[in-house]
Specification:
The structure holds two protein chains of two kinds. Chain A is mainly α. Chain A contains 13 helices and two strands. The chains are: A mainly alpha, B mainly alpha. Chains A and B meet through helix 2, helix 4, helix 5, helix 6 and helix 7 of A and helix 1, helix 3, helix 4, helix 5 and helix 6 of B.
């Protein structure tokens, strides 16, 4: 229809103007994203040139001597994210199975409503509850308890401060569970019905049909939801800053206070004196950006793959 | 029933019950958070929390009036930046775009959506704080607005695309130009969805703390104009919670209750708006 009218006519009717205006707004999104990457790259140049790859393998973080190594922060980020996934993945997938396979549609929808609200709770609120509830609980009950039962493992040794890797991981787990549930539920619900029926008709119990047929079918999508949660856990700032203890240490013990990439940026950015210090912090930001960029991309790909597979079989 | 079958039935029943327990645990966290905040915040909140400035360190009492106004100003700026770009960008994607451009814009929006909020803070710092040589409301609003763009853009586009084709064709058949069709038919038909998208984006950035730490910074006094550091509710909660003072902890709870209440109410309103459906009969 556009081709049948001349450009001038469309211009007079305002279509070309509307097109141009909305185009500019749409493209500004792209420009701002490119600018973000460019700024991170440019502003971290000083640290990148000075330390090179050594930046990732150095344990020392000494602003006075201008020695900056990212290892303790990368370690802290990875450890807390791992702890959070160990807790959140079974819980989240279990809850998603319940919502998608067992709960009646109305119950499932209303529970999903609460899960969505939970995902909307700001991270500083999780931090607030972390500081005043989780930390004392960990110090007085959980950590001594773990030490008495599993203390022979290096993971659960050392003094119980309350703050540390384990506490940060637990708070993160609570934060990412809603993401795992929402996405996994969607993915499980897109598994075609005949898959379930086939398994049941062959004599499988309800659980066997769920665990051996439905979940494997949705595996890629569920993995996607886990990647999404991981990206979220790696980039989370406030809740971690408030409970991790903010000490750059590398320790096998999960009770030990630590530090994460996001937390060190949050705490030291305004105090960074000297260009090199600031540049090192921005390089940490760049690392964080790249990590989450890769994970988010992979997650989207996996989720799309599963829903297409479900749609494809449904039509076949 | 053979023992083996009985065992399989037992496993099935047990595991399915466990999934129910998982769901129960996940949902009860929300009620626990709400209950705890209402309990602690409710006893700490009072009139002066909304009307007074913070007291100097060591004195009890005072409030967070400046943080409430600061948050309102930051969110106003954020909406002024994020909503037009998100909304008009979505119209381009849904109505005008060539598919290659649309792919790039969507990709950029998804990328921006996944950027950790602290990194957005760094970006706003280099782009707004450094040139102006000032921590400011402007820089904080810019950081939050940036985060609103992808959320508004992507969900608005979805709602625009959901408008039935018959409506477009009817408008075109009556001889309306394309932009007239968009302005008088498509946007009004999708307005509930668009409103939901904007409200959810607003609620999402209202609680963001990390991007404000080194853009809006914080302030114990009023922040006149737009070019001064300003207090905001999320940053105030953070600073008060990690402080060593009992009275500040009390105020952190109160601020937490106000912030969470605001965000949950916006979320529920947004979903209620959407639940009443798109006002047009489906083709």
């Amino acid at each position: 229809m556009a081709g049948s009218r001349s450009f001038l006519r469309r211009l007079r009717e305002g279509d070309e103007i509307a097109r141009l205006v909305t185009f500019l707004f749409a493209v500004s999104t792209v420009l701002v994203t490119l600018l973000l990457i460019l700024e991170l790259w440019r502003d971290s140049a000083l640290a990148r040139h000075k330390f090179g790859l050594q930046f990732f393998f150095t344990r020392v973080w000494d602003p006075i001597a201008e020695q900056f190594g990212a290892l303790p922060f990368i370690y802290g980020t990875l450890v807390t994210a791992t702890v959070s996934l160990v807790i959140a993945v079974p819980l989240g997938i279990g809850a998603a199975i319940f919502l998608a396979e067992l709960a009646p549609a109305r119950l499932s929808d209303s529970l999903e409503f609460f899960i969505d609200l939970l995902a909307a709770v700001p991270s500083v609120i999780y931090g607030l509850l972390g500081v005043f509830i989780v930390v004392p609980l960990m110090r007085d009950y959980v950590q001594p308890g773990l030490k008495n039962t599993l203390g022979f493992l290096p993971l659960f040794s050392g003094p119980a401060y309350g703050v540390g890797f384990l506490t940060a991981g637990i708070v993160l787990a609570i934060m990412v569970i809603p993401y795992i549930i929402s996405v996994s539920r969607e993915v499980l619900m897109s598994v075609p019905r005949d898959q379930r029926e086939a398994a049941l008709s062959l004599g499988a119990t309800r659980w066997e049909s769920t665990w051996k047929v439905v979940v494997p079918f949705a595996r890629t999508g569920i993995t996607g939801s886990i990647f999404l949660a991981l990206a979220r856990a790696l980039g989370e700032t406030m809740a971690v800053t408030m409970v991790i203890g903010n000490t750059p240490t590398i320790s096998a013990s999960l009770f030990s206070p630590g530090y994460s990439i996001a937390a060190v940026i949050a705490n030291e950015f305004t105090e960074a004196t000297g260009d090199l210090y600031l540049s090192a912090l921005i390089e940490l930001g760049l690392v964080l950006f790249l990590l989450t960029f890769l994970l988010n991309g992979a997650a989207r790909l996996l989720i799309v793959m599963t829903s297409q597979r479900g749609a494809g079989t449904a039509n076949a | 029933m053979s023992p083996q079958l009985r065992w399989r039935k037992f496993v099935s029943g047990f595991m399915l019950t466990m999934t129910g327990v998982c769901a129960l645990v996940a949902v009860s966290v929300l009620f626990f958070i709400l209950g705890y905040l209402v309990y602690h915040g409710g006893t700490s909140i009072n009139w002066s929390f909304f009307t007074k400035l913070p007291k100097p360190v060591g004195e009890t009492g005072g409030g967070m009036a400046n943080a409430i106004v600061g948050s309102a100003k930051l969110l106003l700026l954020a909406s002024l930046l994020g909503v037009p770009i998100g909304f008009l960008g979505a119209i381009y994607l849904a109505e005008f775009s060539a598919s290659k451009v649309a792919f790039v814009v969507r990709y950029a929006a998804d990328l921006l959506n996944g950027v950790p909020s602290i990194v957005i803070g760094i970006f706003a710092y280099s782009l707004v704080v450094l040139p102006f040589k000032h921590f400011s409301t402007l820089a904080g609003g810019f950081a939050l607005g940036l985060m609103m763009i992808p959320i508004t853009l992507r969900s608005t586009e979805d709602f625009l695309l959901a408008v039935p084709r018959a409506l477009r064709e009817a408008a075109m058949a009556l001889g309306a130009s394309k932009w007239k069709m968009i302005a008088t038919v498509i946007v009004p038909a999708a307005y509930r969805g668009i409103l939901t998208a904007v409200l959810l984006a607003f609620a999402r950035v209202a609680g963001e703390t990390a991007p404000l730490l080194f853009t809006a910074l914080g302030n114990r006094f009023w922040s006149p104009g737009w070019n001064q550091p300003t207090a905001s509710l999320p940053v105030a909660i953070f600073n008060y919670a990690v402080s060593p003072y009992e009275d500040w902890h009390r105020q952190a709870w109160a601020a937490g209750l106000v912030l969470l209440g605001l965000i949950l109410v916006i979320n529920i309103v947004a979903r209620a708006v959407l639940a009443r459906g798109i006002a047009v009969p489906r083709a």
